[in-house]
Specification:
The chain is an alpha/beta fold and 835 residues long. The chain has 14 helices and 42 strands. A hairpin with a 2-residue loop joins β1 and β2. It is elongated, with a radius of gyration of 43 Å.
């Protein structure tokens, strides 16, 4: 296995030089926060008139053994700063670092003596408000992105740490305070250090109340904004600065919320009693410690989860660790791992105390992740589970080492891979091993790289199958292969999400398998139709690739009666046929009239037949739809209404020779037709029924000029009833002819009209029959789509301009079964714009 230090801890030298100007307490400018802006103005005013705001009990630094209340390690003072974790991705306890910049222009702002944690305790700060409370306590705006507390070891001298007042002394209370005071050089401070300090102080004073927008008191304590404006309200923490370029040693690194649950001062022991988002522990973060405890009722979520960097830790979870997690401390590949044991050994030069050799997790609560619940990258790992371990990818995943997973009456849900080494899996008590499998047997073994397996008699296998196919009778699945496997002779209990399949577990001493046995009468008993159910049961006796998807979906449906009902012929078919064919007959009759009047056929100037489903019936009209009610299909045949219509050319003759016959019919003609039908369907299962009552009428009129063709034809129907009509097409036009016409019926309490109308182009020059025709009929030049409608209307018929030739208008409204905006008016015309 690759060294995880190489894989997961890239060297980031860039952050070494950004520590102070971006870290520490130096703020980003507040964004749209009038409370903070007011605090900056008040701090400036207080500094100009410091008398009422001076305190005399600021923290002092008098050295180790002096009783000043501070913590010292190897003679150095422990200070703390609120900063960003990204500045410390290559840090560790014992690493010597430098404050960014020069001492005349940069500094890192810190607090000492555990004052930050004391203020949290006094104010009752919790994980929910710790970010805001910390920002307020150190005088930073709430728009900062800091997420880390870093503890530093600093030499307790005026060369390394100073008080940001006109008197920078650290061993005594300052004597010169406020913006109008004079600078005072303390005893023991070199001239060079004092000169650098005054230069920085002067530059910072100019920017703090300007571009940096920082409520600097100049009185030795931070301005705690957002709580009022009395001295008790605004007094924050005793503050100090580390000059630019000065040296310090990293002592400990903590995520902000985890600092609530540790003693700090280098301690890596955590007792989490409330909520938490991120916890970093181990010798890469703190010099000592070996326990992390999540108490019952505590929750870890919304951050990075738990990262244990070094071996020797015991993590005890009695609470809940859940949800998606971000990459831990900038380490790639650590997303969505709830608990990660990194297994890294401390390098040379660290302050690490002695530590153990393995990783231990004791879980009585819940650890759940969409990725991996528990991962160990190195070291011997023991996982003792009496709660729930659940991972979308893995419940447990380890690498090298001799690892063991003991399920002590708990649940492990997700794959288990214990990696290299001599590894074991033991289940005792009422334990559950839950795995997701492919029904086709394509899943890898859910338990891998385990040399020894011991399963007790109360162990249950809980299997979940996806819908990629179905479990055929006799399909076998391997759960685990092991060199040494012990399972009860009576077998294990097996449950699944498929009630129609019974699973039997079997062990041969080296592997554990389960076999699926289908109940071949289950669909017969459960389907909406026993005959269909019997057919489905028959199909499932063998793996039928053509039916895998269907049976898989039915197996997963949870509603076999309702879903199989959808496979049956619908009881509403006859009503739908009546509705569809009735409308189709009207469309076909209209299209036939158009074709006959224009000169039917396939010549360039002719209109192509148009109608519902492109039916081409010559000159049909509505037959007795009572026949349709009996047969289930509408019959089309000539009716007496045909006698009222002008003669038309046959479908296969497109000769203009038919036109004189039309002209001889008379100057004004008309026709009409009516129909009626009723359909009734009964609902069954999830299949809806349809109850329809349809009536309609169709009529037309025409005016013919001598030796010229001009005809206007309108058709109207009136329909009633909740009829579901196909909604695949709409009335459209295409180059070379009129497109399909798909009638729509829209119940409007309860009647809705729809109109079809067409007319050819003509040159109006007098009364009917008084003018000679054009030398060339306008329709002979072909048809083209005119583009967008002349006007968008709703509920009206749009008449095109007289200058257009052979135009057609269709008014369409959508049915209630397909709600949406009203369809537009479509217009087609010949390419010539004027006669």
């Amino acid at each position: 296995m690759p060294d995880p230090r190489v894989v997961r801890r890239p060297f980031v030298a860039f952050f070494f030089c950004l520590l102070v100007s971006l870290g520490g307490f130096t703020p980003a400018r507040a964004v749209d926060n009038p409370v903070y802006d007011a605090a900056v103005a008040e701090a400036k005013a207080n500094a100009a008139n410091p008398g009422p705001w001076i305190v005399t009990d600021l923290k002092v630094v008098t050295g180790p053994g002096s009783g000043d209340g501070n913590t010292y390690v190897d003679g150095k003072l422990v200070a703390a700063t609120f900063t960003k974790s990204s500045y410390y991705t290559s840090a560790y306890p014992g690493k010597v670092m430098s404050v960014y910049g020069s001492p005349t222009s940069s500094a890192s702002w810190v607090t000492i003596g555990g004052e930050l944690k004391s203020s949290w305790s006094r104010l009752g700060v919790t994980a929910a408000d710790v970010k805001l409370a910390t920002s307020q306590a150190v005088g930073m705006s709430d728009g900062n992105s800091n997420d880390t507390i870093v503890e530093m070891l600093v030499a307790p001298t005026l060369e390394s740490i100073q008080r940001p007042t006109k008197d920078p002394s650290i061993a005594t209370q300052p004597t010169s305070l406020g913006s109008a005071a004079a600078f005072v050089q303390p005893a023991g401070m070199s001239d060079a250090a004092f000169a650098n300090f005054t230069a920085y102080y002067t530059a910072w004073e100019a920017s703090a109340y300007g571009a940096d927008n920082f409520p600097w008191t100049q009185l030795g304590y931070t301005y705690r904004w957002g709580h009022g404006d009395t001295l008790a309200d605004i007094r924050g923490l005793s503050e100090f600065i580390l000059p630019g370029s000065s040296k310090y040693t990293v002592y400990a690194v903590y995520s902000l919320t985890s600092y609530l649950y540790t003693a700090g001062n280098g301690s890596g022991d955590f007792a989490v009693t409330g909520n938490l988002d991120t916890l970093w522990a181990g010798r890469n973060f703190q010099p000592r410690g070996d326990t992390v405890r999540i108490d019952a009722g505590a929750t870890v979520s919304g951050g990075q989860g738990l990262l244990i960097s070094s071996p020797g830790y015991t993590v005890t979870n009695n609470g809940t660790i859940t949800g998606s997690t971000a990459a831990k401390f900038g380490l790639s590949g650590t997303e969505d791992v709830a608990v990660l044991f990194l297994g890294q050994l401390p390098g040379p030069g660290t302050l690490a105390a002695p530590f153990g050799s393995g990783n231990t997790l004791v879980n009585t609560g819940t650890i759940a992740s969409p990725g991996t619940a528990v991962e160990a990258d190195a070291g011997d790992t023991a996982i003792l589970n009496a709660g729930t371990l659940s991972g979308g990818s893995y419940a447990v995943r380890t690498a090298g080492g001799n690892d063991r997973l003991e399920v002590r009456g708990g649940t492990v849900s997700g794959r288990v891979d214990l990696g290299d080494g001599l590894d074991s899996l033991t289940a005792t008590g009422a334990s559950t091993l839950a795995f997701a499998l492919s029904p086709l047997g394509l899943s890898p073994d859910p338990v891998q790289n385990v040399e020894s397996v011991r399963l007790g008699g109360d162990t249950t296998l809980a299997l979940t199958f996806d819908a990629s196919g179905y479990v055929a009778s006799g399909q076998r699945y391997t759960i685990v292969r092991a060199g040494n496997l012990s399972a009860p002779e009576s077998g294990l209990a097996v449950t699944s999400n498929l009630p129609m399949v019974r699973f039997v577990a079997a062990s041969d001493g080296a592997g554990l398998t389960v076999t699926g046995l289908r109940d071949l009468g289950w669909y017969t008993r459960s389907a909406a139709n026993p005959s269909l159910g019997a057919a489905l049961d028959s199909i499932t006796t063998t793996v039928n690739p053509a039916m895998e998807g269907l049976i898989g979906l039915l197996d997963q449906s949870g509603d076999p009666a309702g879903y199989t009902a959808r496979l049956l012929p619908g009881p509403q078919t006859r009503a739908m046929v009546l509705a569809v064919d009735g409308a189709s007959a009207f469309g076909s009759a209209f299209a036939a009239r158009m074709r006959g009047l224009r000169g039917a056929g396939t010549t360039a100037g002719a209109l192509a037949p148009a109608g519902f489903l492109q039916q081409d019936l010559g000159l049909p009209d509505l037959a007795d739809l009572g026949q349709a009610a009996a047969s289930g299909r509408a019959a089309f045949s000539p009716t007496p209404v045909q006698a009222a219509l002008p003669a038309a050319a046959a479908a296969d003759t497109a000769s203009p020779a038919a036109l004189p016959a039309l002209a001889g019919e008379g100057s004004i003609e008309a026709f009409a037709s009516v129909y009626g039908a009723k359909g009734l369907g009964v609902s069954s299962g999830n299949a809806p029924g349809y109850d329809s009552s349809l009536t309609g009428a169709m009529g037309g009129w025409g005016c013919v000029w001598f030796r010229a063709f001009a005809w206007a034809l309108s058709a109207a129907t009136l329909g009633r009833g909740p009829i579901s009509m196909p909604a695949g097409d709409r009335a459209t036009t295409t180059s070379g002819g009129l497109g399909r016409i798909w009638p729509w019926i829209l119940p409007l309490t309860p009647w809705t009209p729809w109109l079809l109308m067409a007319r050819t182009g003509w040159r109006p020059s007098g009364r009917c029959g008084t003018r000679r025709p054009r030398a060339r009929p306008p329709w002979a030049s072909g048809w083209a789509t005119c583009g967008p409608p002349a006007r968008s209307i709703s509920g009206r018929l749009l008449w095109p301009s007289r200058s257009w030739k052979g135009s057609m208008c269709v008014l369409i409204a959508p049915p209630t079964a397909n709600p949406g905006p009203a369809r537009p008016i479509w217009i087609s015309r010949p390419p010539t714009a004027r006669p």
